[in-house]
Request: fold
Amino acid sequence: MYAIVATGGKQYRVETGDILRVEKLAGDVGAEVDFDQVLMLADGEEVRIGQPLVQGVAVKGHIVEQGKHKKVLVFKYKRRKRYRRKQGHRQQYTAVKIDAIEV
Reply:
C-alpha cells in the first residue's frame, strides 16, 4: 500500500517504513506528525484518487531528524564592472519516518 501526500508545496509517494525528507516542520525529534492531505491511495488493485483529497485517509509518522541540506552557492557577476556577489544558502529539512497509512 502506498499514498501520495502533499506537504510543504511538494508531493511525495510514501509507504510504511519510508524515511522522508520534507520542508521544515515544527516539532522536536520523536514528535508525532500527521499528513492529512492525501491525494491518492493505492492498495493492490484498488486505487482511490481524490478530487482533490481522499476523504478519511491519514498518514502517520514521527520526526527522526531536523537538519540542513548541503550548501548551495549563488554567484552574481557582471562583466567589466567589478561586480561580484557570492551568497550561500542551506535549506532546512525534517526527516519523517512513516509509521502507518490509516484508512
Observations:
- The mean pLDDT is 95.
- The CA atoms of residues 2 and 89 lie 33 Å apart.
